[in-house]
Amino acid sequence: MSSRDFICDPQSREDFRKFAKAIRRRYGYEKKLYFPIEKLFDQVSVDFDFDYELVDDIEFKSNEFAITVLNENKIYFKASLYEKAMNGDGFGRMTLAHELEHILSYKLFGIQLHRKIYPNDKAYKDPEWHAKCFGGELLMDYELTNELSVEEIVDKCGVTVDAARYRVYKY
Ligand SMILES: [Zn+2]
Predict the structure, then answer these.
(1) How far is the CA of 75 from the centre of ligand 1 (A)?
(2) CA-derived radius of gyration, the chain
């Protein structure tokens, strides 16, 4: 799959919505509320040609769960976080989706991971915002979740209460 299959250089929430929908479509989950990223992650890494590795928890700070190293073409996951994700944990699943955005943006669009700090930088230029935005759109399809409550989204999409609240109240 090449970058031509996606919009180039996504910047806005609408762009990331299209990007997430393209990924959902590729795996046949366009109409499904639950996007099983934990089950697909092996396949996704093969399809998009990147590696990932599980690392002992002690190698990570307590509030860090994953890191994408672009020049290694690799995502490192804290082992306990990855295991939770494999068991359907909302935070773990969102972390997988978040890191996926970092590596796909780089591979497909050549976007760098680290933000250049300028005082007037807008959120849309921040790679962390990109990853959050994509993760939300991938796990909570906009159209499918439009009429749902926070509780229903948590239950049906497999996300945290915080993520579902953000979906319902912020966009
Ligand atoms: Zn990130």
Answers:
(1) 11
(2) 15
